[in-house]
Amino acid sequence: MERPVSILKWMSLALLASLPTLAVAQYTVVLDHLNSPRGLSFGPDGSLYVAQAGAGGNTGKITKIADPYAADPKATDLLTGLISLGEPGSPTEYIGVDGISALGNGNIYSIMAVSSHEGPAPLGHLLKVSQGGQVRDVANVGDFDYAWSSEHIDLAPHDFPDSNPYGVLALPGAIYVANAGTNTLDLVRPDGSEQILAFFPNNVIADSTPTCIAQGPDGALYIGILALRDSIALGPSAKVYRVDPAAANPDDLNTVKNLATLWASNLWPINGCAFGPDGSFYASQYFTSAPPPAHGDVVKIPFDNPDQHIFLTGGKLMFPGGVAVGADGSVFVSNGSVLSMNNGQVVPNNGQVVRLTSH
Questions:
Q1: I need a surface site. Which of 107, 145, 260, 282 has the fewest CB within 10 A?
Q2: What is the rounded average pLDDT for all residues in the chain?
Q3: 188 and 141 in contact (C-beta within 8 Å)?
Q4: CA-to-CA distance for 59 and 30, rounded, in angstroms?
């Protein structure tokens, strides 16, 4: 499986293109001292939620930033004690809570990585978290998708069976999950029933690895993929696919395989995505040249011109994760989604939530 957080294993494979020259924004730190910050989502009251995959043990958490625009924003942990597992072979990468999405009623949906085949529950589970911190286990997406991949090994014989739920989007009456291991888009209903709507095609070298979901101004879903190994070896290979859930037929494999249509391409690995109030698509790019160093960025794509890619920081971010856009168009991104190293020692608490600001 090609992990969304496995870039450190591939850092020495190739040297690629230079950094983009366009830089239209700097960033200010909203909240720091975080461990593996991943998904971001705005709540109905303007609060910003961040998922922290943690630094091992039960250090995963969901944190609420009450006023992310304030000079000294107040942050509280909505949920703590979530399992955090070290990625085998890497001292800086951790598996835990990844995607997060807030509904208009204030409930938070979060998705845990992998499945019970790689770790104990609630890994692989979709969780519903109330504003009071109460948790309801909605569905075991990880195991459901693992079973599906076991039945469809021919779709990715080098990789299946596999499962790694990573991105989530909660809409009224439907929760969508992007599984980076099975390369699928799942529909999870509030009662926990599940269906697989779309399969994302493999790349030249490795699988597609979908990481994030955003609803576009046309009502369709837009899914960003990582394309990690392909981007390292071949240059920017990540894509954004469009999926119309109304056209889905989960009972027909041919429809599942062909539901996703290409919307944007030639992008560096995508780790998080969101639409802004002007209809533009924003995606965090894990890196924008072959590391080291790892110059991450956020790319803006106008909805009516998906071939136009505007890089917002000129590569000033480090392994960025989730993206959220405020009602005023301000872009927030989780920076430092993996731990850092200093003189051979792992440095925890290096993650941040940052806000991009114009020059």
A1: 107
A2: 92
A3: yes
A4: 21
